């Protein structure tokens, strides 16, 4: 490995995954393959590719392109992933993924958890 | 969700995953479930638990405890994960996971890639 | 640089700083030197050193040890940093820094911002 | 703070700073203000703004716009920051910052460190 490759490594950088994601995706009814598809989309987006194709995603995964397409379709249908229209600086419209619905589910889960904990407390105080 | 929970969220923080990991794990012969086990270990370690049990790991995954134990055993056997002995400040010996062998494989892969690219260049110059 | 050093680099990893920190520390009345002291503490903590000394911190900064001690004292006094007592597994008590008060200030700021925006909206609707 | 703001927070995400940066910037002759300017540029770039103005940068810092302009000029002159030309998908040329020279300095420093350590070892073996 030469210096240029090392510089590439640093320049590429890292994706940040909130620890809450690692400890709650199971409760959101997501499995490991689905999470890795979402992490791959995040990686592409943070490198400037906001709408990676199933072929691009599957080329980095042990899943076939057909399986990737199927997972993407389900993630959208089940409300974890969205395709939005956006405009670039020259007003050209392009499509892009958004993980916003995924973050909404995480927050719903956190709110739901609080309510349950408070109900639990209230119950115990009644006894 | 109240303020305390939000503070917890910030305090918990995030794990950082180099983008090179997301784009090369397939070439290292690792699949999505194995990567998620490694990410879970990383998450536990960055929260101060350096030797999470298969039960702790599987409780956050859609994999059974038996399946987690099996994956952990294979990751160690195939040279991606290590159990080391360490001493705390009071010289008590404890066991801990180390992802060092995984990082070594990533680097080996990067070196190997460079050599191949250079061979390729040399070939093309000969023609 | 040899392979071992590269493995060290990967194993060391990165700290994650929420973008909101970068865009709001000024509003929290913190300056660049104070933020860098907090980031240094975070870096030490994420490497397992929960109570770095002013000497350890200043050795990585362009600030003198006296200046570091002064900044640490002020961060504590002004409510951005805390020293807590904690127990390790063998019940030995030790002191450690906590950035919890800093995260509380960030959240207070976010709440405050929302209230102001809503007041602003209400005003505009009255007109 | 409402749910939408929380979703914004998650969607914004974090920047990742390699720990080596925090432990070696002093040796690269950079100070805390200069590092924070670089971190601000990184934050803007990871949010899709590849050429933030001195005014945008200083609006988030305790430094005046004039001081920011001065620091940016010096970072470029001293070889830590670069302005490149890039093309978007519609072949429109735009200017953007690149931290590539900064990463090169970090790597040079790591190489230099290794050579010195090896010289040191060789010396000790001669004795």
Overall description:
Four copies of one chain form a homotetramer. Chain A is of the alpha+beta class. Chain A has a single domain (3-126), classed as Orthogonal Bundle (Arc Repressor Mutant, subunit A), CATH 1.10.10.10. The first copy, chain A, contains six helices and three strands; from the N terminus they run αβααααββα. The first copy, chain A, has a two-stranded antiparallel sheet. Chains A and B meet through α1, β1, α2, α3 and α6 of A and α1, β1, α2, α3 and α6 of B.
Give a brief rundown of this model.
The structure is a homotetramer of 127-residue chains. With 127 residues, the first copy, chain A, is α+β, with helices and mostly antiparallel strands.
Could you say what the CATH topology of chain A is called?
A: Arc Repressor Mutant, subunit A
Separation, N- and C-terminal Cα atoms of chain A: 67 Å
| SS summary, helix count of chain A | 6
The CATH fourth-level homologous superfamily of chain A:
Winged helix-like DNA-binding domain superfamily/Winged helix DNA-binding domain
Q: Average pLDDT value of chain A?
A: 93
Tell me about the largest β-sheet of chain A: 2 strands, antiparallel
CATH architecture of chain A: Orthogonal Bundle
Order of helices and strands of chain A: HEHHHHEEH
- Multimerization state: homotetramer
Topology, pairings included?
Four copies of one chain form a homotetramer.
Chain A: H1 3-12, E1 14-18, H2 19-24, H3 32-45, H4 54-58, H5 65-77, E2 82-87, E3 93-98, H6 100-126
Antiparallel strand pairs in A: 2-3
